[in-house]
């Protein structure tokens, strides 16, 4: 799967979604507000697209911490600050991303762009979210190839990770208030949270929770008539495809592209699942990478902002230079654009269906349960001493009380990390 400014009252009044400032009736002021709130019906596409591009370029440059953190930052931006979506719509998009393969936070960015500006918005939001991370990873890959090792930046993560934990915690609270509509849904979410720590598969938990809530909410109807078959599409079995016709020991850019296209088309789950796919294809079957190179590639993907799937950019550059990097990146992200384009128009129909709406409610609370579990794990790894605990608590207070832009919080965390490294 990504920093918001506060939506502080400015002392004006709102008219048809545009906040009118006292004394600011000029055409320039109106244009600025349209850029800030491009969901306004009078806002032309020429205003909406720059706003979308600006937002997702910034998120792609500052969104550290993995999909949970990226989604938390998007929630702050598109729901709390810009009000492009309400909480329920955001949750429905999040549930939809969990039902399809691919990187969740990237697919959320693509969904938001599609909702705001149609097909052009879909392309602009996705490309802008991916591009900063891809360029950063390209630069690091060049350093790696030239000097034979990955740059170390533990000092950066020391200060940034606690801030990320605070951002995710606030998003969990806000989304949870909307998603947990009944004690039954709260129990399902809690069960998913606990089950995750027993090692139960994430995809199994998502679909099980969805089916349980769907049946639970419609049990009365189920007694009156026999339920028709409900088929949940699954792409997991495709993970065993080997593309044997394409496999070769010698590096081929076409094989590289199709390998990453396959991974992007079938991959559910976390970055650890990505690691398993990459190792199976690139280390074991094709023998293009060593385990050390693969771990370095995944570490770079975790270290840099934006989607973790830019690991593909790093690997592509190592194997095939700039053409390899571009093809690998295109291959792994292209399926996400296609899946979102297909699934997004179906979301209103899903929500209006009593049966499938229950499925989506279950997937939503399960998503938050998994998000909470991952946050707990990240928190234990990130808040390791008193200074990092203080960073997390102060960041949470600044978010809740003063709604400080998360971009500034992450920048502040990076500065604190640098100062800590210099002192030590």
Describe this structure in words.
The protein has helices at residues 27-36, 45-62, 67-81, 87-98, 104-147, 154-179, 183-197, 202-217, 219-224, 253-266, 271-285, 291-303, 311-343, 347-352, 354-382, 386-402, 406-423; strands at 13-15, 18-20. It is 72% helix and 1% strand. The two termini are 34 Å apart. With 424 residues, it is mainly alpha-helical. Mean pLDDT is 79; it is low at 1-41 and 226-249.
**CA distance, first residue to last residue:** 34 Å
**Low-confidence region ranges:** 1-41, 226-249
Tell me the radius of gyration. 22 Å
| Number of continuous helical runs | 17
> Largest beta sheet: what is the strand line-up?
1-2
Give the SSE layout:
Blueprint: E1 13-15, E2 18-20, H1 27-36, H2 45-62, H3 67-81, H4 87-98, H5 104-147, H6 154-179, H7 183-197, H8 202-217, H9 219-224, H10 253-266, H11 271-285, H12 291-303, H13 311-343, H14 347-352, H15 354-382, H16 386-402, H17 406-423
Helix pairs in contact: 1-2, 2-5, 3-5, 3-6, 4-5, 4-15, 5-13, 6-15, 6-16, 6-17, 7-8, 7-15, 8-15, 10-13, 11-12, 12-13
